[in-house]
Fold each of these.
Amino acid sequence: MAELVNKFHVKQGEQVYECTCYTLEDEATPKTVEGGSTWEIKNNGVVCYLGLWPKASDSVSEYSTPLTIKKNNVEYYVQTKVLNYFTVTITQSANQTIKVTCGGETYTETFQALAGSQYTVVVEPVEGYTAGAPTSSTGYVNSNLTISASPASKKQYLVTIQQSANQTITVRVNNTTDYTSNFTANHGDTYTASIKANEGYTAGKLNSTSGTITGALTISATAAEIIKCTITVTQPANGRIEVNSKTGTSFAINYGTSTKIEAIANSGYVVDALYVDPV
């Protein structure tokens, strides 16, 4: 800010008002009031400017002196100094923080900024959310300003369910909704996973059975295994029992497989009966 060392003095009774003389007209012009102007004078031969506040303004300047002048038929109060500060209002919203950097400082609450100051805005979300867009991301403070942002939104993630043969994985979200195919979930949703084998199979092992969704997730299981049924054979005297044309005392047969069991008598003997006891 360019100011002269020597001041312009206004005296009323015993009260003396010391007025700053600005070398730049722009700095001397009050910008926080409509119609602010300047008074050009010479201070020890140097051209300088005093700030002028419109007398008819509804707003009052705390820096007005009793001295008034008329310029272009408008009456003004001469100012002791000009502080062109504007109010920057920051309107915060849920699940995110608006940060405004201005004049080398970063603010999250309403502040005063020097007229013409450049500002930048960033919006930082809390974990699990995507930040909204600010009403302004950068600019200059040339009037009172309000900065806000659109609402933050919950992040969403793809949950992939990798089904495999002869079993079905079911994922329940927030204990309310069941899924058997890929779906999208919100950050923070909870889930439980279960698996059911088809008839004749034993279900595989799930890679996860429960948790909180904080990113992309894949639920899968090891392969289902077919149930093995055991056929135990007590071989008779004077003959034999064959299972699928094989002789023995124990056979492992896949569940659901068609199986042939045959009793065969030795020469000179006949089969009396074949007994099958289900387990």
Amino acid sequence: MAFVEFKNVKKVYHMGEVDIEALRDVNFEIEEGEFCVIVGASGAGKTTILNILGGMDTLSEGTVILDGKEISGYNQKQLTTYRRYDIGFVFQFYNLIQNLTALENVELASQISKDPLDAAETLKKVGLEERTGNFPAQLSGGEQQRVAIARALAKNPKLLLCDEPTGALDYNTGKAVLKLLQDTCRNTGMTVVVITHNQALTAMADRIIVMDGGQSVMDGTPKEILPRMAELRAIGLDVPHTVELLYGLREDGFDVPVDALSVEECADAIVTALKGRENR
């Protein structure tokens, strides 16, 4: 059994006399310890999935299972306990308390947990050992997001959910934040789920789930999903520049793989291809 399971999940919002179907028969699985990125255009259903998985919303039909427990059957009291102990949240706009220091923001979350991690040590792990006494207004956007990540990690949750964690950051800072989340997943074995509209960051994932029109239309590893450029573009998603570059080189006769996704892999592939041409 997978760590996270969505089975035929449907969510309908009733807005007066209008019914809005946010999710339609969504099915996917996420294994324990995976770094999963959910992508899709605006309105595709990404945030609805995160809200249901985080116990902040309920579904209309279907089943959601986390760590062998059917959370879709929980009542409001059970959902409160679930959110408090099992889930860590990282939001796009940080949601830090402005009159508390970085350390105090992290300590606040750890005080409501069963088995919290040390707040100062957690801040050290995210590279903010020298900034523990600073208030949010004294930190950059990337540093504030690192505090938010430390706050979520200090709860020692089963599942870390991140809602557009790089949306308010520039590309390089956002990539650094995503690398931090990836390292957390690798080093602790924690399951991390990130939703984003930025397709360029998906190459770092173990699993990509592509949403369109309230349905999961693709599910697989980056090397299985990202080369499907025409399908991704058809639903309004960009393709990473590395994939586009390699496809262009293949069309020009270079013998390069199309599944070299990181900048490093792409550079290595180009160098190898150029050497191959020189040796002909």
Amino acid sequence: MKKFVLGLGAQKCGTSWLYDYFSKRDDFFDGFMKEYHIFDAENRGKIFDRFLRKSIGSLVSENPKNWSKDKQLLRLSMFINIQNYYNYFFDNLKDKKKIFTADITPTYSTLSPRILKNIKSNFEKRDIEVIPVFLMRDPVNRLRSQAKMKLRNPRKKATKSEELAEMRRLVGTREDNIRVDYSSTHDAIKKVFGEKSFFCLYEELFSNEQIKKLCNLIDIPFVKPDFAFRVNESKSKNNITKEDLMKFTPSYKKQYEFAIDLFGKEKIEEKWQNFNEKL
């Protein structure tokens, strides 16, 4: 049975690196993008509006004969008829050399069990098994990575005070709360897919052990990754101390408690360095 990897985030937790690892494999059909945003875009007004403008612009400027080659128009066809989404992967997995494919859209972390069940059912009708993947990162470090991305500017490096100010601006916002609601995403995945799910800490992802586990779950041969390679990494030379970061820890009490329940206190104390048992 062919496999479809459904990446549900979380954002800034290694999803781009994972997709890059997949895309370098001969047995992977990489489609025309990493993030399709088919199931979340309508609920995210700005994303959907921007996508529609791009699609309409392509429609106006392109020769009709080339429409099927334009990724924005392909996505538009999927919005118009969701079956085009499922059939796109089904048709391309007919290639005997391609064993699996993926849609790794971090904002899918908000998808309800009802939508996940529908995705699973539609692929099963095409004899394709869905493998959900959810990566979680120390919430404070994820917040810092998000702040660095927001401040990314090739002409001007953000200062320490600017970086911390951006973290303070983001923490506790609706956007932040949605992206670190690890427990809700986990519970939705478990409800629909049960044990055939891959949950992993970002801090453990870059290891042969975890990649072997994922390959076994997908039922593909293990191919050694390039762990030194990073995708979309926002580097910073600012000396932000552990004391600076620990000031944000109380905002994520729920996330740390959930992670302890799922992975154990010993592992979280070791891997999530901003955890404080006095929370």
Amino acid sequence: MRHLTSALATSLVLAATGLVVIDAPAQGPLPPAPPPFPTEDLPDSQLEAALVRGHRIGLPSPPEFLFVLQKVGSPRWRQLYYPVLRGEESDRSKIALRFGLSIAEAHIATMARDAQKIRDIANDLQRHAKVLGIGDALSDKVRSINHLAEAKSWAGVAFELESLHTTTDESLEAQRDAKLAPLIKTGQWLRLLHISTSVVSEEDFPDTSIAISSCWTLDQIIASTTASEEATVVTIRDQLSKIQRLWSPEKLAGGHKFDDALIEECNGRLGNVIQLFAK
């Protein structure tokens, strides 16, 4: 398959805000992560001006990651929703992973401009937060997300979802549950990569490596699991490490192709891992 054009190889251009992130050099320290998504609402023509490539710029925000799929392909977002989680769960590590998955789902619903789905996910988030003991700390944020979705202020929803994640981390740290915070990021990114591998495997993308973004992305997600030795988290870490080896630059240099079979294998592994905590 062809590589992305030079325009698409630009790390990030957010025309609406004037934000430009330049590719990091191969050597040297990593640049800071991109600033948060804009608070003001923006027309679709400006929201969709984001182009992301997964060079070593740290983890992109979920809106940035999803916008590259929107820009390069034509995802049918509503067909990609994860099934509603029916089963109850009391394991706090699994609840944290579910919380992250729900945040990812909310970002997908934002891309779909689906206010009803946002309301449903907000209820899930509040339920998970209550089990984690941070329901009161997050209630205002969850209400704000609902109100912004009803007003169709989609950039505002995206920003509040990012802000919710930050508030969640702070609240967990305040009650001495900081070890759960990285698992929220893990659950979120497992779902985002599950989505991206689904989309890329189903569409004719000019550069299939976008399915995983980069090995640096995988490095960061794996690092978020290292504080826990619980069985589910260890399995997640092992599976991500296997995907990382499949996706390594050394494999590419040796003539390994990021073809449909590889992407489908990664998608299947991600789906199986998510099933460990989201049934």
